[in-house]
Design brief:
Layout (H helix, E strand, L loop, with lengths): L12 E7 L5 E8 L8 H7 L16 E4 L6 H9 L3 E4 L11 H14 L3 H4 L6 H23 L1
Parallel strand pairs: 3-4
Antiparallel strand pairs: 1-2
Length: 151
Amino acid sequence: MGPSPVDRARPGSKHHLIVDRHGTPLAVTLTGGNRHDVTQLLPLLDAVPPIRGLRGHPRRKPRRLYADRGYDFDKYRRQLWKRGIKPMIARRGIAHGSGLGKVRWVVERAFAWLHQFKRLRIRYERRADLHQGLLELACSSICLRRLARSF
């Protein structure tokens, strides 16, 4: 992995997560700590499994995508529109208060759920594939908890 954005001398990693409106993880990836978040936007969208609706074919993409200022690039906005996804991304350089905080906290809560697992909060594994496996196992555990609470 690349250098950590906090401690430049040590390698670090970032967790990239896409969730539904309830905070259930839909897709997760792991990259180096020096990678920009927006580079993982399209691969995460491609990794989202079909979403079962009421009737008909399962949806393969969300209707809207909420994101913070780190994803405010016209190139990615255009690519989202081409995919039929309405980008709800906060603009850089504009005062806070866009209203995205009402829905953005769901993602932050999902990260808090992930980082309750100590092996993800503090990375001990040298190999990225082992850490990715633990990340996916944690997402499965979160999904199982959400499923158990719904019954």
